[in-house]
């Protein structure tokens, strides 16, 4: 399954924004514009789809998402996703969306206001509507024109209910909708991921074997990748050896706490009577990543390396994990943090090589990074006087002009974009060349 | 300010990246040696430069520049104007542009469609001739024109099938990965040992770019060669 586009709006200061997906997509804007809010809006929407109706009601009152910008104050939260899956046959292209009203001060709102399921055998052209939520109707297949009745509570999505009905031809598409996930890596400092605690929550049996995305214990995630997806683990190693030519060997292995450390820790988990009073236990195994470098006279733990090195390891590991588990979309904030410009091109190439069908959304403040992407991959924060965040690309017929302007100033495309974002005159030029 | 003329001809190579620079510098040295032309590196502080002295005594100043990580295409034009045409104003300059005509189609690339045409326009006023060493091929595709040489360098069997890849770089990476995970393909100066091991005669014969024209500017016309 491949995501084709996402539309989201009505979250914090984010107005409706549609993003065409494919490979790496970047969002650029000045600080405090709303890049992070956009990624969080997408994450919020995918969580909403998969939550229970009860939790959805809570989410519709989530203070951290309610728009505070006056112009958006009455806006519903909106989300739409378009994807393609050849295995769906004539239901190959799917467009699913929903909206809800936020809780209002007068107690109104907190209801799902719309939901659409549209399907098309090809991209472009006319979509067939399979749901009329406002009328409580749905269509089970393209063979029929008649709609059946469906009753939905105000916090229920049709996709919650339809999958339970057996003879609906569009159910495989609906199941895919419910599998859509967005994984967000917002941590700027990845170093904590290499210093895990030796404690874990008791009865976390399910967590035992899974490779977790953005695992708080990155060496553990790497080890599980090694055990469960050796080929992808080798891809990770290959990428790291490419970026760090001085690395001669990388190892990820389990180890146990030393007895004296174990005993001290065990004591702290017990009451004076010797009872275990906390919901934590000491982990059976810990994990470490070590590196042998031609520059060093001994093998070292990765947590002794620079923040930038750790961040790169963290980035690549998560991208490869996401791809190994068919995650459709991941977001990474400020990819360039702690990374020298010299490495950015190669890092982007490696990310691109390893994301497979996964869409990677990144935010950036780096003209050097942006330079490596095509204009259609770059969404720019539309200049705004009222605090509203809306992201658009440069119009296709204006790209050559922008390239020429950049060239006239002796700047690269990425440098010029940032130049435009940095002045009032530039903002006016930018506004004139953006889509919409 | 223009320097005193000390050379007869100037050749400037503007290439895409550091690997290209390594390849062309090795190619120039190799062809000079193969044709008995004396060649020496010139340390004038601004990058990779050579002086070749042809059999007829013509001295050729060769300067190489690549569009680097931080620099952009417009910097390359500036470099030519200041470091070549102005500094050595009394000698005619031929410029070779070494690039992949398809580079802007790659998912990740710092080049945009039209970049090299704009560069050509910028340098045309001061260049006697501008020659494209360009094809729908990256520099690794050029290197792979001597496929047996690459295999031999890597220690892979001579019957190793060329791996699939959109471009030479992808294929080169896969070939290196076949040898060992911790010895990946590296670009730039780290590719020099591989480049040095290649059969430049074969590459000259089979590459889809006019390397013969570059050789000719270094070693002179065929009457003047050894």
Task: Record the SSE blueprint.
The complex is a heterodimer of chains A (about 425) and B (about 230).
Chain A: E1 2-9, E2 17-20, E3 24-28, H1 35-50, H2 53-59, E4 77-84, E5 93-101, E6 111-120, E7 128-129, E8 131-132, E9 137-138, E10 148-149, H3 158-162, H4 171-179, E11 182-185, E12 199-201, H5 218-228, H6 230-243, E13 247-255, H7 259-268, E14 280-282, E15 286-293, E16 300-301, H8 307-324, E17 329-332, H9 341-354, E18 359-364, H10 367-370, E19 378-381, E20 391-392, H11 399-408, H12 413-421, H13 424-433
Chain B: E1 9-15, H1 18-34, E2 38-41, E3 48-53, E4 59-66, H2 73-86, E5 93-100, H3 115-123, E6 129-135, H4 139-143, H5 147-154, H6 168-179, H7 192-196, H8 200-206, H9 211-219
Parallel strand pairs in B: 1-4, 1-5, 5-6
Antiparallel strand pairs in B: 2-3, 3-4
Q: What proportion strand of chain A? A: 15-25%
- In the predicted model, the low-confidence regions of chain B spanning at least 5 consecutive residues are none
CATH topology of the largest domain in chain A: Rossmann fold
Provide mean pLDDT of chain B, rounded: 92
Widest sheet, order of strands of chain B: 2-3-4-1-5-6
Radius of gyration of chain B: 18 Å
CATH architecture verdict of the domain at 9-138 and 203-219 in chain B: 3-Layer(aba) Sandwich
Percent strand of chain B equals: 15-25%
CATH class category label of the domain at 9-138 and 203-219 in chain B: Alpha Beta
- Give the helices and strands of chain B as they follow along the chain: EHEEEHEHEHHHHHH
Shape of chain B: globular
Largest sheet of chain B: 6 strands, mixed
Word description of this protein:
The complex is a heterodimer of chains A (436) and B (226). Chain A is built from 13 helices and 20 strands. Chain A has helices at 35-50, 53-59, 158-162, 171-179, 218-228, 230-243, 259-268, 307-324, 341-354, 367-370, 399-408, 413-421, 424-433, and strands at 2-9, 17-20, 24-28, 77-84, 93-101, 111-120, 128-129, 131-132, 137-138, 148-149, 182-185, 199-201, 247-255, 280-282, 286-293, 300-301, 329-332, 359-364, 378-381, 391-392. Chain A has two domains: 2-181, 3-Layer(aba) Sandwich (Rossmann fold), CATH 3.40.50; 194-325, no CATH class. In chain A, 31% of the residues lie in helices and 22% in strands. Chain A has 436 residues and is of the alpha+beta class. In chain A, strand 15 and strand 16 form a beta hairpin. In chain A, the strands form five sheets. Chain A has a six-stranded antiparallel beta sheet, covered by helices on one side. A six-stranded mixed beta sheet of chain A has the order 11-17-18-3-19-20, with helices on both faces. Chain A is globular, with a radius of gyration of 24 Å. The mean pLDDT of chain A is 90. The longest helix of chain A has 18 residues, at 307-324. Chain B is globular and about 50 Å long. Chain B has a domain at 9-138 and 203-219: Rossmann fold, CATH 3.40.50. Chain B is of the alpha/beta class. Chain B has a six-stranded mixed beta sheet with strand order 2-3-4-1-5-6, with helices on both faces. Chain B is built from nine helices and six strands; from the N terminus they run βαβββαβαβαααααα. Classes of the chains: A alpha+beta (436), B alpha/beta (226). Chain A binds chain B through residues 23-24, 234, 237-238, 241-242, 245, 247-250, 341-342, 344-346, 348-349, 352, 368, 371-375, 400, 403-404, 407, 410-413, 415, and chain B through 69-70, 72-75, 78, 104, 107-110, 112-115, 118, 173, 177, 181-187, 190.
